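Researcher: Please predict.
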Amino acid sequence: MLITMNAQDLLDGLNTVTRALAARPAKQILEGVLVDANSDGITLTCSDGSLSIESLLTGDVKEPGRVVLPGKLFTELVRKLPGGTVTIKVNENHSASIRCMNSKSNLAGMNPMEYPEMAEVDAGTTVKIPQNKLREMISRVVFAIATDESRQILTGCLLEVTQAEARMVALDGFRLAMQKVFQPFQLPAGQETLKAVIPGRVLNELSKILLDEEEFCTLLIDKTRMQATFGNTRLSTVLLAGEYIDYRKILPPAFKTQAKADRSQVQNAIDRASLMAREGKNNLIRMSFNTEGLTITSNAELGDVLEEMEASLQGDPIEIAFNAKYITDVIRNITDDELCMKFNSNVSPCVVVPQEGDQYLYLILPVRVFQ
């Protein structure tokens, strides 16, 4: 194999595909990146066995061929290159010579015949979402995906698609996050809803390589796999098996109290209160809504914090406590000028929604500290 290409293009491709590398791969071959040079271009592929990412790059393929090179080391070598054009030559023993200006490196490769084929999703339901909208959806729900493997289905995020909207739902037992995109979707005849549970790690990596542009990301989903295609990149992953929790049963049908306050003021106050809460034993902040406004407090052995601000209240006054991290994660993912919170009691879930519409919904369980 003999190829010549732009060093920055190669680095960008490697940065994309190596997101699929596992920290502890099951096989040594999965530590590598597959480089496949042919008449179509130069394809880089990395896989951990369940997640695969492939990127097609342009370059001058003088001699086609395939090789597997150590993923992390190859990426770092390319990152340190002086720039410009890089030439890679691979001999019959899978050893690669990498030249760029006055720099030359030799890298021992592996037999590409041992590298697993990237699983294809040939048939399924196609869902097209603009990359920027999909990236925003993912970034605003991933914090609520469970990390505890004891309930594996919750380590993924539910994607639900109807003919009018797509929504993502994540919950970990302490909070729930839901984001929606409203646009027409085409589903197979007789199918009202498409459901898929996508592993949390996959969504994390996908959100980092999606571009902030309106070009579509095409999702092809069957019963066991999902394939995402955008730009020159293709991602393939195994979906989580099983039925996701019926989150609709968790959402309260009505509320006794609704409070509104300036979102940035509340966020800044909670950030300050959280500094003290972290010094305490239980990382708690307390929020008290009444006719005079909103009071946020936290305390620890080292001191306490008191924040007061204007707020509007409909319904009964309420005093409620939250884990500081859980309430902070929610408010950081809201960009509206006004924060709208709904309650029933200080021991039942709090729901955060837009003042108008239903583009998002967050639910947080309070901490029982009041008698």
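Model: The first strand starts at residue 2 and ends at 6.
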